[in-house]
Amino acid sequence: MNIWASAEFDDHEQVCFFSHAETGLRAIVAIHSTARGPAAGGTRFKPYDSDDLALDDALRLSRAMSYKSALAGLPVGGGKSVIIGDPAQLKSRDLLHAFGRYIDRIGQTYATGEDVGMSVADIETINEVTPYVGGTSTGAGDPAVHTATGVIHGLRAVLEHQFDRDSFSGLKVAIQGLGAVGWGIAERLDAAGAKLVVADVRAEQVERARAQFGAVECPTERIHEAEVDIYAPCALGGVISERTAAEVRARAVAGSANNQLTTPAAGIALAARGILFAPDYVINAGGIISGAAATSRMPGRAKANFAPLEEGLAAIRERLTEVFERSTAEGRPPEATAEVMARELIGR
Ligand code: NAI
C-alpha cells in the first residue's frame, strides 16, 4: 500500500504501529487531527482479512472522529485504534495492559475508549496502567443514553426542516435496532406521541416494544422501506446503498448507526428523491459529547472549555439545522456539506 498517497491517509498527523509478541498484540493507533485539542476515539478489536484493511479502518475511523468532535463544537481532535485479531481468542489481561502501556506513551495527544469488540470492563483493565481512557463505569455514565438524547435533538431539526412542524405527535418513525441507543430513542419518541414501527434480530426486544409502546413489528430486511415519515437506522452501518435508497418511503433518514451510507452515490440517490439525510456523525455525537470533558482532566493536559452536557447535546439540533440550510443553499447533499464544514473547523 502507498500510505502517503492513499485516499484514507488524508494527512494524518501520526500513525503508530504497536506490537507485543508475548501477548500477540498488534495494534494501530491513528491520530488524524489535534487541531482542536488532544484526539479521542475508541479501540476496535476484531480480525481483519489483511493488515491493509486494518490500517484503512483505523484511518477512516479516526478521520470520522475528527469530523464528529469538530461538528459537535468540542475542543477535541480525532483518533482511533484497532487491535488486530479475534477478541474471543486473543484478548487477555496481559494484552490489554501491553496496549495500555503503549497508549500511555502517546497520552498527551490521544485517549481511547470502547468500540466494537471492547467492553467497559476491558477499558477499566487498560485504565489500570494508563489514565488516558474514557468510558469507565465511574466516568460520565452510559454514553448510549446521551447518544439517544442527542438523536432526539437532531430529529427536531429534521422535523423543522423537512416536515415544517415541531411536534412528534402522530409522526410515524421506523426504528431499526432496539439496542442501547435504539431503545432509548423509542422510549423518548413514544413519550412524545410518535407511532413506532420496529425491527430487531432479537425477537424479545420487538416483543417488549410491542407491549410497552404498541409498536408495529416489521421484518428486519424490510424496515428501510416501511411506510413511515422517518426511518431511523440504529443497528448496523451500510444500510443505505443505491438500491435501498430507491426503496425508502420515509421523507427522512435519521438515526444513530455509524456509516449509514455505503457510498457517496447512496447519499446522492436519497437527495435526488427529496429524502433528507441527517449525517450520522452529526446526529450521533451525544456519546462523545458526554465523555469529552473528562479528557481535559487527564494528567498533563491543558484545561479546555466544555459546554454543560445538556447544552452540548441540544447544540446537535442547531448544528444539523446549519448543515441542512447550507446544503440547500449550496445544492449539495447534507453529508457532503457536513464534511466541508468539519474540514473548515479543523483547518483543512
Ligand atoms: P447495540 O448493540 O446495543 O444495539 C444494536 C441493536 O441492533 C441490537 O438490539 C441488535 O440486536 C440489533 N440488530 C443487529 N442487527 C440487526 C439487523 N440486521 N436488523 C435489526 N436490528 C439489528 O448498539 P448501540 O450501542 O445501540 O448502537 C447502535 C448503533 O449506533 C451502532 O451503529 C453504533 O455504532 C451507533 N452509535 C452508538 C453510540 C453509543 O453511544 N452507543 C454512539 C454513536 C453511534
Short description:
By secondary structure, this protein is α/β, with parallel strands linked by helices. The protein is built from 13 helices and twelve strands.
Write the layout of secondary structure elements.
Elements (H helix, E strand, L loop, with lengths): L13 E7 L4 E9 L5 E2 L2 E4 L4 H21 L5 E8 L2 H4 L2 H13 L4 E2 L8 H8 L15 H21 L8 E5 L3 H12 L3 E5 L3 H11 L2 E2 L12 E4 L8 H4 L6 E2 L10 H9 L3 E2 L2 H4 L2 H10 L13 H22 L3 H12 L3
Helix pairs in contact: 1-13, 3-4, 5-6, 5-11, 5-12, 12-13
Walk me through this protein's architecture:
The protein has 348 residues and is α/β, with parallel strands linked by helices. The protein has two domains: 3-68 and 76-139, Rossmann fold, CATH 3.40.50.10860; 144-284 and 317-346, Rossmann fold (3-Layer(aba) Sandwich). 43% of the residues lie in helices and 15% in strands. The protein contains 13 helices and twelve strands. It has helices at 51-71, 87-90, 93-105, 120-127, 143-163, 180-191, 203-213, 242-245, 264-272, 280-283, 286-295, 309-330, 334-345, and strands at 14-20, 25-33, 39-40, 43-46, 77-84, 110-111, 172-176, 195-199, 216-217, 230-233, 252-253, 276-277. Strands 1, 2, 3, 4, 5 and 6 form a six-stranded mixed β-sheet that branches. A six-stranded parallel β-sheet has the order 9-8-7-10-11-12, with helices on both faces. Strand 4 (43-46), helix 1 and strand 5 (77-84) form a beta-alpha-beta unit. Helix 3 (93-105) crosses helix 4, helix 5 packs across helix 6 (180-191) and helix 5 (143-163) runs parallel beside helix 12 (309-330). The longest helix is centred in the last third of the chain and has 22 residues, at 309-330. It is globular and about 55 Å long. It starts with 13 loop residues before the first strand and ends with a helix. 49% of the residues are buried. The model has no long low-confidence stretch (mean pLDDT 96). The site of 1,4-dihydronicotinamide adenine dinucleotide (NAI) has 25 residues, from helix 5 and helix 6.
